[in-house]
Amino acid sequence: MEVRTVLVEPKTEENIGAVARVLKNFGFHELYMVKPPCIGTKAMAVASHARDLLKSARIVDTVEEAVEKTTIVAGTTARRGISGRKHLRLHALTPYELKTKVKDRNGVLALLFGREDTGLQNEELKRCDLVVTIPAVEEYPVMNLSHAVAIIIYELRDVESSRRDTVKLASVEDKERLFTHIQAFLDEIGYKPHKKEETMLMLRRVFGRAELTAGEVRTMRGILRKAEWKLSDLKTILLQKSAKV
Amino acid sequence: MEVRTVLVEPKTEENIGAVARVLKNFGFHELYMVKPPCIGTKAMAVASHARDLLKSARIVDTVEEAVEKTTIVAGTTARRGISGRKHLRLHALTPYELKTKVKDRNGVLALLFGREDTGLQNEELKRCDLVVTIPAVEEYPVMNLSHAVAIIIYELRDVESSRRDTVKLASVEDKERLFTHIQAFLDEIGYKPHKKEETMLMLRRVFGRAELTAGEVRTMRGILRKAEWKLSDLKTILLQKSAKV
């Protein structure tokens, strides 16, 4: 499994440089940044011998662009899921559990790290397949950005070189098409609007933990299509009947 | 096991502040610094909510003072033991192996981190019971100081709260007395001077891995004393004999 580190709107050059350095320390190369500040001499100085990695980092405008062509999207958060919005952060994995989950997989893991002050926004976390939390103390769980990257990257250090299995995991694009499909289907079946958001989030988490393969996504979308056709057939018949009456 | 983090001649305030923060993130409190720079507003800003920990850090002049009243001294290095001085860095533990070794022990573990540019000096490493290396890539193994602390502290996060066994490990002072005793004994038995240094280092490593208890140190020193008395008796007899002749 390849690892793509994505910094979402990082604020300080020092953190960006420090992240580049630790990625190189553990042999990772792919760094994406969503709307970073201007990267100047400070970042380069802190990056030390990882300037090359910093120079080749991809700068994009949205999280969606940053996770293009990845297979699993994991978001990081310092806050554990104790809110009423239970599906948002429930089942947060430790870095070790993340490693256990992704090793021996193929494809690309996108690791999302949020802003230094406010982290990832709820909308960004919702979009993730998995949520990861570093087991810090409750009294002060908010870590320095580059430290959080260092610890997770340290745990994942062997993931890129581990054995690859033959199962082809679904791409992010595949899965998004599935979720859009499900959402449309929920509308079609008259699912209660106020419950929809929560349910979609739960499905994202369930499928995220399940690590869907491309084939499984195809099969599920096939089921949805089949159901849609049936609905459509029935509607047509109904229309014909009412026209007859 | 309690953990005391010791920064040996750290150079930048940012690193010091970042170390204080990550210690607090994982619930550790004891920070010692050997000859740090002046700790000002920069360090305090980076420490964020760990300013209290930074303010209560102990500043000392020597490594010896920093490891007073500890039980095990572990030194960190980015360079693995491939030099001819084989005992110096041989058997370097990974952070995970260190955790496995010290959990369920009692006493205080001193974790020594060297200077940002040159690390710990050979003399400082020799003085350690254990040597720890973070498994980074060979191409660029030298990590940012606060990242190295973050990763090792992350691995050790449960060590302070883990079950304590009833064995009382030897203190640093106990062990130093043992090594001084052995060294004197080697001199007394006419051990070849050019071999002595290497042998002492090997013994330090062996006893470091063995995690001597206070009782074991007492017993070993008892053996040495017994041998010394025997030597002394024989010398006395010899002197008496030669006086008679």
Structural description of this entry:
2 copies of one chain form a homodimer. The first copy, chain A, has 245 residues and is of the alpha/beta class. Chain A folds into 2 domains: 2-155, SPOUT methyltransferase, trefoil knot domain (Alpha/beta knot, 3-Layer(aba) Sandwich); 172-244, Helicase, Ruva Protein, domain 3 (Orthogonal Bundle). Chain A has 11 helices and 6 strands. The first copy, chain A, has helices at residues 13-25, 41-47, 51-55, 63-66, 86-89, 95-102, 122-126, 145-155, 172-188, 193-210, 214-244; strands spanning 2-8, 30-34, 58-60, 72-76, 108-113, 130-132. Chain A has a 6-stranded parallel sheet. The longest helix of chain A is centred in the C-terminal third of the chain and has 31 residues, at 214-244. Chain A is elongated, with a radius of gyration of 21 Å. Chain A binds chain B through residues 14, 18, 21-22, 24-27, 46, 48-50, 134-137, 139-144, 146-147, 150-151, 154, 157, and chain B through 14, 18, 21-22, 24-27, 46, 48-50, 134-137, 139-144, 146-147, 150-151, 154, 157.
Task: Give a quick rundown of the structure.
2 copies of one chain form a homodimer. Chain A is α/β, with parallel strands linked by helices.
